[in-house]
């Protein structure tokens, strides 16, 4: 290799090293940028007329796919693709946030004497299981909407018998995918779903 070739070779590798360094620095800076944080509202006391009771209820942590176990706000352009809303996040991981909303809404309703998160209280009379199947913005050619889809199962704690099970789906259209529009629609959809949940539980005998 001639001296000139050696110099060109060295400059080539130096350029690649600098480019990789810049790329890594850009990734670090992007990861360290603060995201706007949002939380949804539980149902306040008296929002839904239900019977008052003294039973104790435990709300298990919802099950979900990996896309819904982070704190990012999920957007699905189609059934197979997952994106996230840029520069925005939930205050907790999605499943944790939903669990807390359920606990607080059920507590505020007065339907149960005590409502606790899984493992946080005495042995309950009932256990509420939630499978969170969708908690996302779904975009398509016709419209885009926030969609919340869950399967809920109420178990008797002493023998594990299923008291009742029901699927819920609530959606609210959004004009665009800006954070303000999306979070407001999520709050409306979650309010609808928690209202439907309370009415379902209130109709069950012995609860």
Automatic annotation (TrEMBL):
Gene3D superfamilies assigned: ABC-type transport auxiliary lipoprotein component
Domain ABC-type transport auxiliary lipoprotein component intervals: 39-196
Recorded superkingdom: Bacteria
Protein name: Cholesterol transport system auxiliary component
Protein species of origin: Primorskyibacter sedentarius
Lineage: Bacteria, Pseudomonadati, Pseudomonadota, Alphaproteobacteria, Rhodobacterales
